Amino acid sequence: MLIIPAIDLLNAKAVRLKQGDMDDFTVYYDNPLDAAKMFADMGVKRLHIVDLDGAKKGETTNFSLIEKMVATAGMDIEVGGGIRDMKKLKAYFEIGVKYGILGTVVVKNPEFVKEAMSEFPDRIILGVDAKDGYVATEGWYEKSTVTAVELINSYEGYSAESVIYTDISRDGMLTGINIEATLSLAESIKYPVIASGGLKGIEDIKALQGKKGILGAITGKAFYEGKIDLKEALELQD
């Protein structure tokens, strides 16, 4: 099971949001490169980066900053936020990003997603963000009428590396990952699941460890607020 620290970029700073609200955020690093280097020095295997500006605007707003972070980090990088076409996706892969996270387009442009999964097998992560049980898009500003299981199973037969499942109501709240919903999803789809949204401490990781279909867990605010010892968590990795 992978422990995956998160760096969310907003206005070129490393931040964490509360429940996906881009007007309610806390800045943790003025220079995200410092955070990336710190995680690299700790021996992190994979880093989760989200371009929040890009997610809202549908553009790769922080591309040049992410390029510098990839060069600095020296670990597997997964990036999401504003990747809406093949040109943007390929640009990230060309600078050394290992995995591209597709979110809004998973709902709104399935043909592009299927094309990406076909051209880059095992390098595409489906980012599924749920709000009240339904998938949210456009940087969490819009709620769709489709459930996570329905959405993911519509891609059966295509090759994705994993699915990142985020319960928006818990994200940034330190109330704990929605373990029940995450495990239920993992049992209902064929892709491995990365748990996200609200991780509050080592107990969440232990609750997911060794469970069928769980690839990893993303930690953001819990680390930045000192609620979890990342070195201790990393020792639990398979």
TrEMBL record:
Reaction equations catalysed: 1-(5-phospho-beta-D-ribosyl)-5-[(5-phospho-beta-D-ribosylamino)methylideneamino]imidazole-4-carboxamide = 5-[(5-phospho-1-deoxy-D-ribulos-1-ylimino)methylamino]-1-(5-phospho-beta-D-ribosyl)imidazole-4-carboxamide
UniProt xrefs under InterPro entries: Aldolase_TIM (IPR013785), His_biosynth (IPR006062), HisA/PriA (IPR023016), HisA_bact_arch (IPR006063), Isoase_HisA-like (IPR044524), RibuloseP-bd_barrel (IPR011060)
Membrane-crossing segments per the record: none
Predominant subcellular localization, coarse grouping: cytoplasm
Keywords: Amino-acid biosynthesis, Cytoplasm, Histidine biosynthesis, Isomerase
GO biological process, one term: L-histidine biosynthetic process
Keyword Magnesium belongs to the record: no
GO cellular-component term (any): cytoplasm
MF terms (GO), sorted A to Z: 1-(5-phosphoribosyl)-5-[(5-phosphoribosylamino)methylideneamino]imidazole-4-carboxamide isomerase activity
CDD domains per record: HisA
Active site per database record: D8 (proton acceptor), D129 (proton donor)
Compartment list: Cytoplasm
Enzyme class label: isomerase
EC number: 5.3.1.16
Keyword field contains Cytoplasm: yes
Pathway involvement of the protein, from the record: Amino-acid biosynthesis; L-histidine biosynthesis; L-histidine from 5-phospho-alpha-D-ribose 1-diphosphate: step 4/9
Pfam family for this entry, one: His_biosynth
Record-stated family: Belongs to the HisA/HisF family.
Name of the molecule in the record: 1-(5-phosphoribosyl)-5-[(5-phosphoribosylamino)methylideneamino] imidazole-4-carboxamide isomerase
Species this chain originates from: Seleniivibrio woodruffii
The gene coding this protein: hisA
